[in-house]
Write a structure and sequence with these properties.
The protein has a domain of 227 residues: Rossmann fold. It is built from 12 helices and 14 strands. The N terminus is likely disordered.
């Protein structure tokens, strides 16, 4: 099968559609906005527009209908949903420390926000061509090494970190319920460790990059043996465009990431010191919260169905990410 990147560059581009992106001012959402705004009528609904306004070009900003609001407030959200043809639902609480500190808000944003989205679709008579619901690789719990798309399983112990993964798994079930009962054309997507320019929330690659640029010690939790596969944002967006357009994606769930980049956290830190030409030392410390040992993607289904084949290797992706953080270093010195 020909990969997405080997096909004509416009084949998976969505055009002439009314598109809603909830959480569209965030990291993934803002990159989707860049790729969609030129040829579509794009609306972003987000409770914080600051970062998109700061880092997106003025030309992109002018082409978007920006609405500040909370997906948990149905009355202000329903009118935004009406008449949308393609919907990307990204709104959620992000960042491990924030999830641990705000587990109730984490649950509420995903569960109530996702329910409000689908209720708004039904109540307004909207008939979208596609609703792409963003879940998480954490739905696989602590056993996600090369996980199949249907292997999701989460523990139930009193661990605030699980509030994010648990709510996202229930968000998938909410989407499937409306798909079955109202024939809404749903796709669930589980991102695996997406990184790149404009990621402003807490994230290992962002933290490591700033510390490396400043030549400060890089702290790794535990012994650094945790395994992750890393996907550059442009590759992930190609997958998002594909599930937003390909009719065969309807009614499916997909793991989307880059299996070829799997490495331990300690090895990642070493590679970032080298790529960043840094004199940083790597130190280890105890975990401040629970962690997941293995989160390496199995994405054969996305490859078979969609021709999804990520092209940016970790070296290239880190170089591009370092360049962006260097350009905006003053905004992130507090991470160092």
């Amino acid at each position: 099968m020909i990969s997405i990147h080997e096909k004509d560059s416009t084949e998976f581009m969505i055009t002439n559609k009314k598109i809603l992106i909830t959480g569209g001012a965030g990291f993934i959402g803002s990159h989707l906005v860049e790729k969609l705004t030129r040829d579509n009528e794009v609306t972003v609904f987000d409770n914080n527009l600051e970062n998109a306004n700061r880092y997106l070009s003025s030309n992109v900003q002018k082409g978007v209908n920006w609405i500040q609001g909370d997906v948990c407030h149905y009355e202000s959200f329903a009118d935004v949903v009406k008449g949308q043809e393609v919907i990307y639902h990204l709104a959620s609480v992000l960042g491990v420390q924030k999830v641990v500190n705000e587990s109730r808000k984490t649950l509420e944003t995903t569960l109530l926000g996702t329910r409000n989205l689908f209720e708004a679709i039904v109540s307004t008579g909207t008939q979208p061509e596609r609703v792409v619901n963003i879940s998480t690789s954490e739905v696989f719990g602590n056993a996600s090494g090369n996980s199949d798309d249907k292997d999701a399983s989460i523990g139930t112990e009193n661990d605030p970190r699980l509030s994010y993964a648990s709510s996202k798994l229930m968000g998938e079930h909410i989407a499937w319920a409306y798909h079955r009962e109202y024939q809404i054309p749903v796709v669930n997507v589980r991102p695996f460790n997406i990184y790149g320019p404009r990621r402003v929330g807490e994230h290992a690659i962002g933290f490591f990059a700033i510390k490396a640029i400043l030549n400060n010690d890089i702290t790794v939790f535990g012994d650094g043996s945790q395994l992750r596969s890393w996907c550059y944002i442009d590759d992930f967006c190609q997958g998002m465009l594909a599930v937003g357009k390909e009719s065969k994606a309807i009614g499916e769930d997909y793991n989307i990431g880059n299996s070829s980049t799997a490495t331990t956290i300690y090895n990642l830190a070493q590679q970032m010191v080298r790529v960043g030409e840094s004199s940083s030392s790597i130190i280890t410390t105890d975990h401040p919260f629970s962690d997941i040992g293995v989160r390496a993607i199995g994405a054969q289904k996305a490859k078979n169905h969609l021709g999804y084949s990520p092209m940016v290797d970790l070296e290239e992706g880190l170089q591009k990410t370092f360049a962006w953080y260097r350009e905006h270093l003053d905004d992130f010195r507090h991470w160092g």
